[in-house]
Specification:
295 residues; alpha/beta; N-(1-d-carboxylethyl)-l-norvaline Dehydrogenase, domain 2; binds nicotinamide-adenine-dinucleotide
């Protein structure tokens, strides 16, 4: 059993903290929303009145917050947690944030002898509830090893991407590629439909041909081609357009900072941004198909 402080009990953090409790850890948590804390207590955790109170006696701190500014404020802001934690405490930030903030918080932690890994996740709310998330971890080999038993209580696949910040880099690369694959697949399927093909037949051909990719295999964007996809359920559930837009913003920010050429990522980002602005932000990202569809 490990004493764990958990900060941020939202759609993802709530079920992740519940899985840590189920695995036998003692979890003391803080969130700005009282109802989130009440759920944690009902699941067997302890509620704290502040982040500072939550970390008293903690061996490990896990955070799951909306964006980089929240993570920077929590750890390095005025009275940030890094000024309170004893040396050797392990900090695991699972929020999806910009690489620069992850590296800056990691460096500030290291300066105090505090261990830090960035560990963003893939798998969404369903994966958080089922304890099957993928964690993509950046940090030293020793810190990765120390984080493993904690992450295993919340996830299935745990990858070591490289040094601090590498988890965020790998995640943004993956999600930028996913956005390109989804728009490209929707585009090709509608081209076939416009020329008289049945999308089911075209999908069966392409999934066995060189256009094969994850979106065709398990996440077809055309309604009723596959059962159990968001497309066949009114684009409900799944991975929201707003979250894809957030991740594309992080990818393009890093690309521009490092002068990487990302014309495909920029094109996909423009399509998803326009789609979100048209009121589709809370739909699954495969709803980008509607941009192409002439119905
Ligand atoms: P969310 O908005 O549901 O939860 C964030 C929680 O943080 C909220 O409960 C909020 O009250 C709390 N919070 C904010 N500032 C705080 C502070 N200073 N102290 C304590 N609590 C604070 O967001 P989410 O969907 O749980 O996502 C969390 C992170 O996970 C984000 O970085 C997101 O990009 C990433 N992510 C989300 C998904 C998903 O499908 N929802 C998938 C992968 C990754």
């Amino acid at each position: 059993m490990t004493n764990i402080a958990f900060i941020g009990l939202g759609n993802m953090g709530g079920p992740m903290a519940a899985n840590l409790i189920k695995a036998g850890h003692q979890v003391t948590a803080f969130d700005l929303v009282p109802a989130a804390l009440a759920t944690l207590v009902a699941n067997g955790g302890r509620a704290a009145e502040s982040a500072a109170a939550a970390v008293v006696g903690a061996e490990v701190v896990v955070s799951m917050l909306p964006a980089g500014q929240h993570v920077a404020a929590l750890y390095t802001g005025a009275e940030g947690l890094l000024s309170l934690l004893p040396a050797d405490t392990l900090v695991v930030d699972s929020s999806t944030i910009d690489v620069a903030t992850a590296q800056a918080v990691g460096a500030a932690a290291a300066a105090q002898g505090i261990r830090f890994v960035d560990a963003p996740v893939s798998g969404g709310v369903t994966g958080a509830q089922a304890g099957t998330l993928s964690f993509i971890v950046g940090g030293s080999g020793a810190d990765f090893a120390a984080a493993q038993p904690i992450l295993q209580a919340m996830g299935k696949n745990i990858f070591h991407a490289g040094a601090t910040g590498a988890g965020q880099i790998a995640k943004m690369c993956n999600n930028m590629l996913l956005s390109i694959l989804m728009t490209g697949t929707a585009e090709a399927l509608q081209l076939g439909i416009d020329n008289g093909l049945d999308p089911q037949v075209l999908s069966d051909i392409m999934v066995k041909s060189s256009g094969r990719n994850w979106t065709l295999e398990v996440y077809n964007p055309v309604p009723d081609v596959m059962p159990n996809t968001p497309a066949s359920n009114g684009y409900k559930g799944g991975f929201m357009v707003d979250l894809m837009n957030k991740d594309l913003g992080l990818a393009l920010g890093a690309a521009h900072a490092g002068q990487s050429k990302v014309p495909m990522g920029e094109q996909a980002a423009a399509l998803f941004a326009a789609h979100g602005e048209e009121g589709n932000g809370s739909m699954d990202f495969s709803s980008i198909y509607q941009y192409y569809h002439k119905g």
